Amino acid sequence: xxxxxxxxxxxxxxxxxxxxxxxxxxxxxxxxxxxxxxxxxxxxxxxxxxxxxxxxxxxxxxxxxxxxxxxxxxxxxxxxxxxxxxxxxxxxxxxxxxxxxxxxxxxxxxxxxxxxxxxxxxxxxxxxxxxxxxxxxxxxxxxxxxxxxxxxxxxxxxxxxxxxxxxxxxxxxxxxxxxxxxxxxxxxxxxxxxxxxxxxxxxxxxxxxxxxxxxxxxxxxxxxxxxxxxxxxxxxxxxxxxxxxxxxxxxxxxxxxxxxxxxxxxxxxxxxxxxxxxxxxxxxxxxxxxxxxxxxxxxxxxxxxxxxxxxxxxxx
Length: 316
What we know:
Blueprint: H1 2-19, H2 26-50, H3 52-57, H4 60-84, H5 94-117, H6 120-147, H7 154-171, E1 179-180, H8 181-199, E2 203-209, E3 217-218, H9 224-235, E4 242-251, E5 254-262, H10 271-288, E6 293-298, E7 302-310
Parallel strand pairs: 2-4
Antiparallel strand pairs: 1-3, 4-5, 5-7, 6-7
Helix pairs in contact: 1-2, 2-4, 4-5, 6-7, 6-8, 6-10, 7-8, 8-9, 9-10
């Protein structure tokens, strides 16, 4: 709906620019057009929302033709309505009908091209490539933690290797499949336990898990890269260490995940951190489009990353 609203208004802005005698008249002409476009646009969106199930049952081209016919018919009806009230210049009624139909065709073409660009095969390949970027950092840090224990604490090293094998399996999981929130939390705890073996008392963790659905599906490897950043940028540079706080709770129809770590003079959120955040932001867009978002709150003493996901009871 957001893309339809923006697309239709951008087209109206372009038409107003073409029709205006000069740049100074462009805004005034657009305001006049908006008075005609917005009511029609909102009515069309409401009808399409109500007719979505019958339209989905039709073949693609027939469904698209019905949408164009609906838009054109409503544009014609609106033109007659305005004329009956004495508004308008009494121009050719085909003009608004053709403009509305052309806008509908352009927007339908855009959505069809976008659907092809995000076809399942291409999406799976893109997600696999993004997950592959995470794995080297993920496994390198974990192996270092295990290697530091082999001579001094062999029994703990064995336990750490068992945990690392679980992390390997998670990293090798099909990136197109969502995982349960419980599994993702368990994976994050395993990763932090490995890092705690390496950092000792310098690393403290505060899990704040509120009311959640344990089976809530989320993208794989969503928490671990953020926890890795929190350790690398917030705990390692500080000689005294610090606390990583993870808060997870459901609020209405959204799942809120917040990961916070202290900041230090030596801990810079540099290129590696930005790459991981851009990676997760792109993965969220592939999984959820505009329904999910990633927010950053970088303060002088605290750095927090928040992820907001729509709550879904079934995986994709």
